[in-house]
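Chapter summary example.
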Amino acid sequence: MSETVTQSAPGTRLSRAPGDPASAAPTGSKWNGESFLGSISVVAGILLWEIVSRVWELDFLPPPTAVAARLWEMTLDGEVYGHLSTSLINLAIGFTLSLVVGVTVGILMARVPLIEAALDTYVYAFLTAPVLVFAPIFFAIFGLGRQTIVAVIVTYTIFVIIINTHDGIKAAPRDLIEMAESFNASKTEIVRSVVVPAAGPAIMAGVRLGMGRAIKGMVNGEMFIAVVGLGGFVRRAGQSFDSETVLATVLLIVCVALLISAVIQLVDRRVNFWLPSRLTGW
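The structure predicted for these 282 residues follows.
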């Protein structure tokens, strides 16, 4: 069966010949099957946790039902809202700075060899370095406040965004760039209209990885530096050996992370709708 595929640039859709079985292939069955297996896995894990906690009665591992009840109690009495708002503000500031600066630096490194040569070693060095060792330096510069936590979040996040953006820009199809140059497009137009859209999947992958690291940085900064927000709440509960509160707060952090991840995935699907896998379901 004949098949016509056209994808000369990001945003170009795939077209298939009428009657092609691939064009009628169900795209939802695979997704539904994976979602079902994922749900079964989560339920099985929770049941195993409940059984282990009930049988061995471990003080440091309360059953999930008790953790959920504690989280519901914290929600009803408003105990967690102030900590949650503080953490979300820290996360929003730190991640926004990382995203704007990281994408900009990644593009510059990919397009300007001198900048790449100057910054490449530093980027990979800071990516692999343990971030919390810089906490005393941040404390000396910014003091004991939000700026220090934001600095920790940025240090956790920005370098993975830089690397993904750099690699995505470098992998932009050369034929598309040459075609744009043949139409006398300026370098700015090429970057904006060809290179950045082509690098979209890599950039969005960096955004997803960066958000995960940003949440880790937020919690670590709040736990070990300023003792505020959800991280500080976890630390105080841990010092009093309140396992239910610790795990309930961790559960809340995970729920927030999953919600943010779902939003990023939605943006990713809308930005990179032109990917063949998004068009065909494979």
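To summarize the output: The two ends are 19 Å apart (CA to CA).
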